[in-house]
Amino acid sequence: MHRICVYLGSREGNSPHHSQQAEALGKAIAERGWGLVYGGARAGLMGALADAALAAGGEVIGIIPEALVRNEKAHGGLTRLIEVEDMHERKAQMAALADAFITLPGGIGTLEELFETWTWQYLRFHAKPIAVLDSDGFYAPLLEFLDRTVEAGFLDADTRARLISEREITSLLARLTPEACIPTP
Question: Which residues, 6 or more positions from 34, have their beta carbon under 8 angstroms from its beta carbon?
Answer without folding.
Answer: 1, 2, 3, 4, 58
